[in-house]
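Input set for joint prediction.
Command: fold jointly, output tokens.
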Amino acid sequence: MNYSYISQLYCPKCGHTYGTSEQHQLCTCGSPLLVDYDLEGIKKHLTTDELTSRESTLWRYHELLPIEEAHHVVSLGEGMTPLIPFQELGKDTSIENLYIKDEGLIPTGTFKARGAAVGVSKAKEVGVKELAMPTNGNAGAAWGLYAARAGITSTIVMPEDAPKITRNEVALSGANLYLVNGLISDAGKIVGKAVKDYNLYDASTLKEPYRIEGKKTMGLEIAEQLNWEMPDVILYPTGGGVGLIGIHKALKELKELGWVKGKLPRLVAVQSRGCAPIVKAWEEGKRESEFWNDSETLAFGINVPKALGDFLVLDAIYETDGCAIAVDDESMLQEQAKVAQMEGNFICPEGAATFAAVRRLRENGWIEQNETVVALNTGAGIKYPDTVQLRPEMLEKDGSIVKADEGLVK
Amino acid sequence: MNYSYISQLYCPKCGHTYGTSEQHQLCTCGSPLLVDYDLEGIKKHLTTDELTSRESTLWRYHELLPIEEAHHVVSLGEGMTPLIPFQELGKDTSIENLYIKDEGLIPTGTFKARGAAVGVSKAKEVGVKELAMPTNGNAGAAWGLYAARAGITSTIVMPEDAPKITRNEVALSGANLYLVNGLISDAGKIVGKAVKDYNLYDASTLKEPYRIEGKKTMGLEIAEQLNWEMPDVILYPTGGGVGLIGIHKALKELKELGWVKGKLPRLVAVQSRGCAPIVKAWEEGKRESEFWNDSETLAFGINVPKALGDFLVLDAIYETDGCAIAVDDESMLQEQAKVAQMEGNFICPEGAATFAAVRRLRENGWIEQNETVVALNTGAGIKYPDTVQLRPEMLEKDGSIVKADEGLVK
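tokens >
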């Protein structure tokens, strides 16, 4: 029995294949590369029953992950985040089985940890000593910290206005942190140049083939946590879209393994009205998106004007009869407050976008009342302290709480 | 088989006992109350083997928790946080088996979620409709959000200078949030008055008997994650000390159940030099602490000048041949950076205090090289964005990274 059943890398555009023991970035044709597994081999050796007693991290699926020797695994205990019923919000939106998959409970507080854990582990396995990447914040935080754990040096470039918390995470990891007086695309150009100048491993989104495998585990976990019954709909806040691509890949692999049966869930890409290139492409029936000019949204994790993997996101939507939908920032903030007050969960704005989309899609009938719906919250609300505005009452030391006629409590 | 084997509440000072189906606060003698279980009953019905296949939350130990009916459980997926080997820091401090128990991976980002999950669930079970509490931030965030999930109204009073993130968490939960122009002791007085005036359930530390049961699960998990072998030393950052009291209670219960054997781990209370009442009491061989005047530390979670449960903390230390130790703020910050750079984990200042204490206790020989040592990180570093100070290099849009002679990387 192998630790991993990885078989090769392949190009989803031109079909070219590559080995898995050397360093690879994009295909020679410019497309991202994907990982293939010997699923027949896994079928022979592993059953879903065996999984239940394994450790409660994403490494429980090691046969379906690309790391070939267990000692290369770099782990901070990531994965198996909770899938929690949202009964009150379900009632409020008329959905009988509404769940949150809560990626706030993971190292560094966002789902980016999955991509970093698997991506950095494989980088270690193929001998990477130095990596570089541009980031809007959370991915850089995750890669910086996991690289530190792996003993890999990292160079990370982020826009000056990326959230301070993520900047601090990167700095504390000991990474070489640079700020740029511009956007993530400017950071990307600087990284591209440094990668060439100094022969660094390029860990930019989809420019290495393995972070998608880490993100795939969200799909594996959802299936296992629903006892290998697939939900009807999965919604995902979509910037670069790697999470959605990963979930789609996971479900197809599980189906081929025979661990799940029937129709794949309808996958929904949720974007912000201020940056909705995938939604526009889907509405126009296109297979690729166009660059979205002057993008703007407070959910900065989905502020991605043109995703390298846009065609894979659109494929996932078309293949599963899914859809793409944009919500405005105000709806996000309203939904964030509703989720906290009804369910006790402080989700991030991107997660709130997903729940706002759930509400809209139920209202227009695209989601039916009796369907099982899983919405991804991609990070902890505490990483975005400035999205909440409040004016609490101020008391003096010797003050008292005065309960109004209508009761102490709002 | 019962869901819970709770048998009664008892007073550790005067021995008075109480039932468990009504609301109780302190004993009539003024002491906190503790929970008793029918451990013989559990012994007959539950084995450690059965635990392995249970859900990966603290509710896997429901027989050892006070909630009597499963449908009263209010959960956001808390517990079974990772126990992770810190090999590099272990080498750096000459400790062969050094672990972090990482309470950053829990709803609201701190261990306070454990106390809130169990405390709020039991409050719901005994019919509480409104609760009130003072907080320095993290406990209020956890109780506010879990209370929201339970449909319980909460009134929370915090000092004006408590961290903004926790203030936002409380506000977003829909709690009645009040700020006070003073310290947590001032907030406590205001809450005490409101509790009397409006007949609210007092959820202040140790004034209700159940949060300690939630925090106890850290001890249960450490034992299970070490395969029911006890470590030699457990270190805990100590403010109110409920975590340490809880861990001590857990280990004693496990021993009585026969699930662990031998000597209990030596328990270490870690405090800040700027607020070290437990350390002072321990150094003087006393059974209670004195109020610490003008306390000050950047690790505000352990800024507690006089803990209601101080005598229980000191008991735990004396009974296990443990110790109490104070570290300064600068050592904390240094250790926080070391942990991030060596292990990839962004811990909170309180957690960093524990690792600084590990280093000191190894240096002075109190911890031996071959001992198994577990240090608690009580929260995610991202909740304290202002502890990291940095000056990253700024690039223009068309700038480049210049690799110095000694290499690109520090």
